[in-house]
Amino acid sequence: GKEENFSTHQEEANSTSNEKKPSLSSSEMTRNERTVSKRRLIRQKYAQLSLIFLGALGLIHAFYFARAILIPIALAVVLFFLLAPVVRFMSRWRYVTESVAAGIVVLFMSSLIFTGSYFLATPVTSWIRSAPETFRAAEEKLSFLSEPVGMLDEASEEVSNITNGNEKEDVVKVAIQQPPIISYLLSSTVNVMAGTIITIVLVYLMLAMGHRSINSVVELMPSINDKKGVVNLLRNIELGISRYLVTITLINICLGVVIGFTLGLLGLPDPYLLGIMAALLNFIPYVGPAVGALIVFMISVVNMNTPAEIAAGPLIYLTINTIEGNLITPVIMGHSMKLNPAIVFLHIIFWGWVWGIGGVLLSVPILGILKITFNHFEETKPIAHLLSG
Length: 389
Hints:
This protein has 389 residues and is an all-alpha fold. The chain has 16 helices and no strands. Helix 3 (67-90) packs across helix 15 (357-376), helix 10 (224-266) runs antiparallel to helix 15 (357-376) and helix 15 (357-376) crosses helix 16 (381-388). It is globular and about 85 Å long.
């Protein structure tokens, strides 16, 4: 009887304690579950962003580390899109296969490049060799501009000497002398030749096997619409890049002729080299014309006497480039390769930092390929619109 009474009292105590504990309603439980799920989603988003950031850093490091191989490959891809229409047109001729047409095109392009390099090697080398003397003479003529800066440096040095005390006489100063420009160019000749050979061989293989390679990629697509989409994408990239490069090359050749002739009339030395420099630098939007105008200014300082003659060369250079960039090229090119100037400038800086001069030259074609590719898919059309400005 005692055990039954004890169990009865224990059940009553448990029931009263359960009644005192607040029970969670279904709405509160649902609210807690939503909070937990939101926190879990936020953590997943942060984890995804961190992985994307780390992956981007790794990709940039890979681009920088493998630039000796990636620059020739990127150049070969751009040249493939440029020359593929020519090879396809020649392959329609009788007894001319795709491999033969690719060989003819690559041999013609290589002979043209090597011939131009051969005839320009001597004047360009002498021009580079005399560049330090030219800049030194320009610095002497512009000493009145650097005198205030020199006085400020001397004053700051005196203040630092007073603050830190005079240097001890037994301190030996060690200066690291940088190699001259010619030594740097000679040391990079092997890399340039190796990259040129890789580019030529790869361009030939891509042009000779281009049709079969495209068919192989198309066959991997699961549906008819996907197959048509891949073909249309490749044709759009080919048409856009070839049209852009051919048009901009012809425009730059005419620009170089006009600038070289005009600067020759002003009396500047080697006007044909200045014209070639202007044509090559104009492949780099915004940055190229500024660099060319600075070089013309330094040459004018050395070879001209009056301030008006010194200012005439760079002003004419910038005026011709401005007319070409804002009037002639937009009228001829239209909106087919219209790109956002700010994004183009940032793209040039990025690829110049990663790949150097090669990246600067390839930055605009790479951006054009990205724009055409993004414009092909519905999901990425806003990005293409952003690149178009």
